[in-house]
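testing teh design pipeline on a random one, pls ignore if ur not involved
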């Protein structure tokens, strides 16, 4: 039996069953209750008591490779062992969530491709609109009042794949407290073994990438990302740091070069002086065209 849910990440619910019975003033959810969705499974068991003025939950949810989210660039699956306890107005969610077999796929352009000239613009770092991000937590009462104490980690690293951001992994170790309407995450998200492909000059190795989650600013974590590349015997270091609402970057090189020269190296593999030479600029333009055709 199949129950498709269009326009949601849960597009393929099938072979599922809900087994419940009434015992006195309780609704009992049998452990045989199971929801199969897109290759994952969710089992539910426990009781909902109606003895008092409002429902009182004592439910357990266990997920096995459940599809938590899917769009054009992100597939997120998780295992979970969660408990829902307490009355409707002040229920508690506790337990653990582990991400498994997840993938982020998106082209990320670090620097403009196709500009073999001296006019290489400064990169614009993406920012998160804090007002829009805060709207994510707009969960109505009484559900928004439910408290959280949930551990979150990666059982399998989240894989990064993309045209320009060629490869990488993400691990996480965090805890979410607060409420559904106002979550307070703490912990870190770490980028591992990441390589960003540059237009002409090889790859930028992300040596360290740490995102620190802040309970007092749940939608504005702090970045600390360090990358390095060697181009034409010049060692370049890129640092991206600060809150995601207003990230900043610094560029260093050995031997020392002005920022514009470093950007030219990263974008074209040559310094501005070399690009001003007609033959070199023609060669770089040809290389850009070949890369674009690839």
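output:
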């Amino acid at each position: 039996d199949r129950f498709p849910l269009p326009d949601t990440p849960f597009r393929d619910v099938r072979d599922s069953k809900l087994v419940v019975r009434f015992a006195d003033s309780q609704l009992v959810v049998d452990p045989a209750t199971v929801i199969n969705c897109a290759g994952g499974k969710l089992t539910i068991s426990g009781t909902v008591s109606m003895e008092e003025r409002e429902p009182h939950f004592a439910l357990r949810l266990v997920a096995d490779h459940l599809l938590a989210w899917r769009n054009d660039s992100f597939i997120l699956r998780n295992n979970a062992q969660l408990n829902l306890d307490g009355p409707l107005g002040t229920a508690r969610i506790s337990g653990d969530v582990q991400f498994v077999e997840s993938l982020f796929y998106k082209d990320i352009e670090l620097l403009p491709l196709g500009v073999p000239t001296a006019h290489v613009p400064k990169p614009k770092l993406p920012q998160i609109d804090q007002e829009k991000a805060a709207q994510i937590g707009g969960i109505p009462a009484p559900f928004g009042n439910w408290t959280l104490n949930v551990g979150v980690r990666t059982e399998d690293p989240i894989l990064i794949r993309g045209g320009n951001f060629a490869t990488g992994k993400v691990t996480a170790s965090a805890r979410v407290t607060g409420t559904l309407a106002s979550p307070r995450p703490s912990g870190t998200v770490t980028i591992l073994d990441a390589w960003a492909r540059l237009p002409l000059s090889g790859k930028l190795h992300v040596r360290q990438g740490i995102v620190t989650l802040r309970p007092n600013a749940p939608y504005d974590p702090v970045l600390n990302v360090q990358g390095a590349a060697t181009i034409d015997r010049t060692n370049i270091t890129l640092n991206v740091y600060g809150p995601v609402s207003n990230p900043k970057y610094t560029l260093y090189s050995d031997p020392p070069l002005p920022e514009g020269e470093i950007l030219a190296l990263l974008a074209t593999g040559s310094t501005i002086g070399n690009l001003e030479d007609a033959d070199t600029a023609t060669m770089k333009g040809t290389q850009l065209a070949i890369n674009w055709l690839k």
